[in-house]
Specification:
The chain has about 300 residues and is an alpha/beta fold. Strand 5, helix 2 and strand 6 form a beta-alpha-beta unit. Helix 8 crosses helix 9.
Length: about 300
């Protein structure tokens, strides 16, 4: 079990953070001003989202959540949306288009409660078996945008950034300029390795540059502890090194699974979930023009599961 907290960052911003880098425990952001509130993402389960909403009600009892921004469509950031269904739910066009490709709560529940007879089912049981996905009605966005979108929350200016493909097929960040705060979604992981679902590792690096270009000093990652410009820069630079190593293996014709093992040995460091490096290597191989690169969710999870035991 994790112990989530609503941490104040400024007079108008808070971060909902977990003391865990485990799968499924995502961070959220809150902007509240003059009786209005914007919530960046919800939680994986209804229980987790209710806990989040109770904490918000305690911290800013006079604020009503009028806007929800989804950083992307993975369930650990959106499956609590139905509990804030009266709010406008915003994400990018690319993010919204990816909604239909996500595994449903019922499918993930069945997979994570099945007999661990394969690498994929064993991995799902280990990492998702403790979550209760019952009763979830997937609730999608009501508004989309491209590029950037300027909105106000009370008297606070907020800028939504369409980061494009990176961690997912479409990532969104929330920038609060006057507070120097950015809620990054899964464009940034802190304390654990990134998952690259989009097939483009260079886009993940470019997203980091976009986040740094905001000039913000505080960055709330999708998973892990709140960090600063140095933390984001270090994350970007390591992604670049992983890309260089993986691309070199692709050009030498190294079989992908072996390349993933070698990249894991070279770049695992002390971060959680080094098996996720399989997705980064697959992305680099795809960008290098390699053939038959795993790209579906199932294939990528299978690759991670096998690398975890390599």
């Amino acid at each position: 079990m994790t112990t989530p907290r609503l941490v104040p960052l400024s007079p108008t911003t808070w971060a909902w953070t977990h003391d865990s880098t485990a799968w499924g425990y995502s961070n959220c952001g809150l902007v509240a001003s003059d009786g209005e509130a914007l919530l960046m993402d919800t939680q994986f389960t209804l229980k987790g989202t209710r806990q989040l909403l109770d904490a918000i009600a305690d911290a800013v009892p006079s604020a009503t959540i009028t806007t929800v921004v989804n950083s992307h469509q993975n369930g650990d950031h959106t499956w609590g949306n139905e509990l804030v269904g009266d709010a406008e739910i915003i994400t990018s066009e690319a993010s919204a288009a990816h909604l239909c490709h996500e595994m449903s709560p019922d499918m993930l529940s069945a997979l994570s409660r099945s007999e661990p007879t394969s690498a994929v089912t064993a991995y799902a049981v280990e990492h998702f078996g403790g979550f209760d996905f019952d009763g979830i009605t997937v609730t999608g966005p009501t508004r989309t945008f491209t590029g950037s979108l300027e909105i106000t929350v009370g008297r606070t200016a907020v800028r939504l950034l369409d980061l494009g493909a990176g961690h997912s097929a479409g990532d969104v960040a929330v920038h609060v300029p006057e507070d120097g705060v950015v809620f990054t979604g899964d464009a940034l992981f802190h304390g654990g390795h990134m998952i690259v679902w989009s097939g483009s590792l260079t886009s993940c690096v470019a997203a980091c540059d976009t986040l740094l270009a905001t000039g913000a000093t505080t960055f709330v990652p999708g998973h892990g502890a709140v960090t600063d410009r140095a933390g984001l820069t270090a994350f970007r630079d390591e992604l670049s090194r992983i890309f260089e190593t993986a691309t070199a293996h692709a050009r030498r014709g190294t079989e992908l699974a072996e390349a993933a093992r070698l990249v894991k040995a070279a770049h695992a460091g002390g971060l959680a979930h080094p098996e996720r490096l399989f997705t980064a290597v697959a992305a680099a191989y795809q960008e290098a023009g390699a053939e038959h690169v795993p790209s579906t969710t199932f294939e990528l999870v299978e690759g991670m599961a096998r690398l975890a035991n390599a």
